[in-house]
Amino acid sequence: MHIHLRRLEAVGLIIGSLEVSAYGKAMKYYLVTDFALQITPAAVAQAAKTLTNRDPEKGSARKEHS
Question: What is the pTM of this model?
Answer without folding.
Answer: 0.50
